[in-house]
Design goal:
Layout: H1 3-7, H2 17-26, H3 30-37, E1 40-43, H4 71-80, E2 86-91, H5 94-98, E3 124-125, H6 130-135, H7 138-152, E4 156-161, H8 163-168, H9 172-183, E5 186-190, H10 200-214, E6 227-234, H11 240-251, E7 253-260, H12 265-270, E8 276-279, H13 282-296, E9 300-302, H14 308-322, H15 325-353, E10 357-362, H16 366-376, E11 380-386, H17 391-395, H18 407-410, H19 430-438, E12 457-460, H20 465-475, E13 479-482, H21 484-491, E14 497-499, H22 511-526, H23 530-533, H24 537-540
Parallel strand pairs: 2-3, 2-4, 4-5, 6-7, 6-8, 8-9, 10-11, 10-13, 11-12, 13-14
Antiparallel strand pairs: 1-12
Helix pairs in contact: 2-3, 4-10, 7-9, 10-13, 11-22, 14-15, 15-22
This protein binds FE-MO-S cluster (CFM).
Length: 551
């Protein structure tokens, strides 16, 4: 365990977590309570420094108000959405396309050459109507692909299936193949119907598979740069990828492709030529890293650019991997140059944030990563959880061999990937890899969130609104981090609420400059008394009060 992790393990103050857990499930019917009990865990180290087991990536009980999204959201909205030069056509009713259109604030820096496309400002949809639902939508899809091609002449078109497409059985892949031949550009489809899997996590997997099958490996040109990496699972929300790219450039590290923030299809096609894959969001993209390693021999390591210390640590890991004195020196020089401004901001702010307490309930990686930034401010994480992550994101990848594959996961295709006979090129010899591992560089590993969380903190998978309300009542945290669906109900409790998906119009929060932005934002939020003055109507008029189970 790291120094910072150990400093977190003093028991958290406040109500007894076991009793809170009992209360969280007390009003549920017995079957639901049994299920939720396995998803609500008091984080206590077991013998051998083992964290307790948590149940994750399982169906939400109907009736519980979940934070989760759907498979289509994970595929189109999350993984493919941030790529500027693919025309992404949603095959379905208009709402799916509209509500997945730029709501995530993924930014891009389009190149301004005549063929430097940026389609992110457009929303493409087949706008299915009753007629297509009854008689089939393949014809309309074909027309839509043709129309998109005629108007925009893109390099690639991707098609995303929504729920009704799966229900009526349109064969989007056949249409894509036909149009690929007819138009002579890359056209590929994603069977990411919203109902597949138990959350958007299934959509990530489907997105990873198809992008690997149809795009990665199409361009073998080895570009310039001595230290060539891919950044996987960085979606450039609020400009995070821009800040990471800035730091990489200063260090002399070349980004071949970012999956998929500030990215282009050409970069994906060439990404297998990189010498190292860096995984930022493990949940959404680890499949691409695994497949790229098997097929092309590119090793992967887990990094994290959320938090100034974490950024410095991640840069040092990259330097350790390439094991080049000049790079190591440059990395150290960049860290030395960047950290004083971060330290100055932290020193000024920390007396006002020290000892404050946060709760984080976000997707599949930020609930972990942002604990770093709070720690830098002297704040503690009382409770955290993911919407849709799997056990490995909680407990670490060591649990993977024992994870049960249920019917919902079995529904999602596992690609059978093997070594490319011509292009597999191990980047390091087994002896070199072993020497690096011996020095502490962990390959293909992620320790997960729970080992770094305080003793006695509650880890809650797929938290419901009922549980959120009760957690706020019991602990009164100084700040709560989640998404837009939760925002207003949390503020009505008088608690400041920070969106960690879209960043509430703020950011970037990654890297060194991002850390300073975050410190300032959190200082402003936890030290503003405005939310405490707010009285919801039912607090002054009890007859308006909803009758909550614990009242
Ligand atoms: Fe990965 Fe993400 Fe996240 Fe995620 Fe998401 Fe997101 Fe997220 Mo919202 S890819 S898991 S599916 S870091 S959109 S940029 S913020 S839930 S914690």
């Amino acid at each position: 365990m790291t120094e910072t992790a150990r400093s977190q393990t003093a028991p958290i103050e406040g109500p007894d977590p076991e009793k809170v857990k009992a209360e969280l499930i007390a009003k549920y019917p017995p079957k639901v309570a049994r299920k939720r009990a396995k998803q609500i865990i008091v984080n206590r180290l077991e013998p051998g420094d083992k964290v307790p087991e948590i149940n994750a990536n399982v169906r939400t009980v109907p009736g519980l108000m979940s934070q989760r999204g759907c498979c289509y959201a994970g595929c189109k909205g999350v993984v493919l959405g941030p790529t500027r030069d693919i025309v992404n056509i949603t095959h379905g009713p208009i709402g799916c396309g509209f509500y997945s259109w730029l709501t995530r604030r993924n930014q891009t820096d389009p190149d301004t050459t005549p063929d430097g496309h940026n389609f992110m400002t457009y929303c493409f949809s087949t706008d299915m109507q009753e007629k297509e639902i009854i008689f089939g939508g393949e014809k309309k899809l074909k027309q839509a692909i043709q129309e998109a091609y005629d108007n925009f002449k893109p390099k690639a078109i991707a098609v995303f299936a929504t729920c009704p497409v799966g229900l009526i059985g349109d064969d989007i892949h056949a249409v894509c193949r036909e149009m690929k031949d007819a138009l002579g550009i890359n056209v590929f489809g994603f069977s990411c119907e919203g109902y597949k899997g138990v959350s958007q996590s299934a959509g990530h997997h489907i997105a990873n598979n198809q992008i690997f099958k149809h795009v990665v490996g199409l361009d073998d040109t080895i570009g310039a740069g001595e230290f060539r990496v891919n950044l996987l699972g960085e979606y450039n929300i609020g400009g995070d990828a821009f800040e990471i790219e800035r730091i990489f450039e200063k260090c002399g590290i070349t980004t071949v492709a970012t999956f998929s923030g500030n990215s282009s299809i050409d970069a994906f096609a060439n990404s297998h030529t990189a010498d190292l894959n860096l995984i930022m969001c493990h949940r959404s993209i680890n499949y691409v890293a695994e497949m790229m390693e098997k097929k092309f021999g590119v090793p992967w390591i887990k990094i994290n650019f959320i938090g100034a210390e974490a950024t410095a640590k991640s840069l040092r890991k990259i330097a350790a991997y390439f094991d080049d004195p000049a790079l190591t020196e440059r990395v150290e020089a960049v860290i030395a140059e960047e950290l004083p401004a971060v330290q100055a901001a932290r020193d000024a702010i920390r007396p006002r944030t020290e000892g404050k307490r946060a709760m984080l309930f976000v997707g599949g990686s930020r609930a972990h990563h942002y604990q770093e930034l709070f720690r830098e401010l002297g704040m503690r994480t009382l409770s955290a959880g993911y919407e849709f992550a799997h056990r490995d994101d909680y407990e670490g990848r060591k649990v993977l061999p024992g994870v049960k594959v249920d019917a919902d996961s079995r529904n999602i295709e596992e690609l059978d990937v093997c070594q490319d006979p011509d292009r597999y090129r191990p980047r390091k010899t087994p002896a070199e890899l072993a020497a690096l591992s011996a020095k502490g560089l962990e390959f293909k590993d992620y320790q997960g969130m729970m080992p770094e969380m305080p003793e006695g903190s509650l880890v809650i998978d797929d938290i419901s609104q009922f549980e959120t309300d009760l957690m706020i009542e019991k602990y009164r945290p100084d700040i709560f981090c989640a998404g837009i669906k939760e925002k207003y109900m949390i503020q009505k409790h008088g608690i400041p609420m920070k969106q960690l998906h879209s960043y509430d119009y703020g950011g970037p929060y990654a890297g060194f400059k991002g850390a300073v932005n975050f410190y300032r934002e959190i200082d402003r939020m936890v030290n503003s008394r405005v939310w405490g003055y707010l009285k919801a109507p039912w607090q002054t008029n009890p007859e308006l009060a909803a009758t909550y189970a614990w009242e």
